[in-house]
Amino acid sequence: MPTVITVRNLVKTYLVGEVEVRALRGVNLEVQAGEFLTVTGPSGSGKSTFMHIIGCLDRPTSGQYLLDGQDVSRMSKDELANVRNHKIGFVFQGFNLLSRTSALDNVELPLLYRGGLTMAERHKLALAALESVGLKDRAGHHTNQLSGGQQQRVAIARAIINQPSILLADEPTGNLDTKTSIEVMGIFQRMNRERNITVVLITHEHDIAEYGTRTAAFRDGVITADHAVARRRLAEDELRDLPPEIDE
Amino acid sequence: MTLVMIFRIALKALSRNKMRTALTMLGMIIGVGAVITMVALGAGAQSSIDAQIQSAGTNMIMVSAGNFTQGGVRQGQGNASTLVPEDAAAIAQLNGVRYVAAASNARGQVVAGNQNWSTQIQGTDVDLPLIRSWQTSAGAFFTPQDVTTAAKVAVLGSTVRDQLFGPDVDPTGEIVRVSSGGAGATVQNQPFTVVGVMAAKGQSSVGQDQDDVIYVPYSTVMKKLRGTTSVQQISVSATSAGDTTTVAEAIGNLLRARHKIQPGDPDDFLIRTMDEIASVRKETTQTMTALLAGIAGVSLLVGGIGIMNIMLVSVTERTREIGLRLAVGARGRDVLFQFLVEAVVLSGIGGSVGIALGFGLSRGLTYWMEWPTEVPLNAVAVAFGFAAGTGVFFGFYPARKAAALDPIEALRFE
Ligand SMILES: Nc1ncnc2c1ncn2[C@@H]1O[C@H](COP(=O)(O)OP(=O)(O)OP(=O)(O)O)[C@@H](O)[C@H]1O
Ligand SMILES: [Mg+2]
Known about the structure:
heterodimer, A: 248 residues, 4-stranded antiparallel beta sheet, B: 2 domains
């Protein structure tokens, strides 16, 4: 299996006034294509910071990041934009949807910057993406008319619309109830299995971490543990087995 | 990204923030509309004064009694009793003088039947309608005979006729009763015979009704209403416009001789040619235009600050939007172009509506209020340029800053 993400000695330091905040203190990691990596760790341990760098949204202070073998730090801004558009799907910790805008238009957004598509084609793709997260009937709704779980699914649909090779999700189940969390994890597992998308997913709940194939733990800006998940949970099975009374 | 698509994105963004869009446009509309209306009023007043001076004839010379600065004491012009009818007769004998009309005015109350109207009583001479090229719409102006005998005859301005007799009535031959509390004795209910009605002249450039007046022989005002032996003013018309300065000088010498003023002593009269009057009037309207332009400038500034405020208030939200667009793969220039198009569309529409409003208001003022207006194109350009400049600057400049950030910084912007 080819290596998709290679990170060597990654350091990120923020300067807040006079004080240096060392969010990442030398992270080393390799992620193979098709893996489902979950990342855990206490609040402030640097998970989001790491994710943003992996997603080409931010630059490290030092260290090396190879994406598909290419050194990201040598890329121009426009090349990075291109990478974000084509290779990476990002689901933010707070969904970051455009307000007063329909779900469909939100999902379509990355397509606008891909180019070469007619309006009809964009609509078709966006509808298909919404369908794959089970939200086709809400395509015309504004995002503020959707529940938290639905908004999360719109964000996922937007992240997968450009057929990325990597899907990055920052606490996608952060404020969802148990059943909705399992549903959302099911979507990620399906994307990972059916489309062979590499998934890196942050969570601070250990049971959510068990939906991945491998899990890494952050503490104080470094990875302290990294191992395969012994007994992987499968969302589809669990949803099937859920007692009907919870199903409302 | 095609241009069409960027336009579509920009229009979508504008319609998503309807309130912001509307408020920004409102700032432009008010700013631009106010400037155009104000400046149009000023320019209209100016050109109507020009036209009026042109029509009054550039060969007019006005002689008033008294002098503004006589003996270091400011005196009301026309209030001194230094000009007499004989001065007018003497001026009429000078070379280059065509018409002469002495004037003695009063305010008074005119009564016809049970109608009652307070108006200006202008005592003048038979030459006045010739100097001003005024026509009568009924009857005729009074005669030299009437002036010699101080006859109680009156020619009505059309407003006075309308008030006392009603429009379209020919009051020639009717009797009106005139009361005046002028500077001299108070007179009550003097019967005057109406001999004519002047054709309507409309409003003067300063908005005064030029038809709210009655004309009577100056001798009648002097003897029957004011009880004085002097006149307030003498209007002179030179034979040709080129002669006014020499004629004015000749009049000055004549009056100094007649009034026995010693060399070195100041005049006890004031002579102004139409050129001078015109330049004074022009200065007045220029002041007014400047004032109006000032008000307009303030509205433009307020509009600009409004635009700026709205734009800056939404910077946070918009910076996050930019961050998000960058995060899903927009290049810096895609976002910049979108914001530029947005700002230009916003400013273009707002400014254009403002221009339309300015033109509409100006037309409306002319139509309903009968105020002359004239829209100067450079004012349109300046107002539009300023409003659009403000809109584009405050719409585009923060976007430029945001687009230079890393996506995550823009997404985190507070
Ligand atoms: N823009 C920034 N400026 C300064 N310090 C920052 C900035 N972003 C993050 N930090 C600091 O870096 C550290 C790591 O933050 P990060 O957001 O990566 O934590 P996290 O593991 O995602 O936490 P959580 O589970 O609460 O989301 C924290 O101490 C935080 O205060
Ligand atoms: Mg985080």
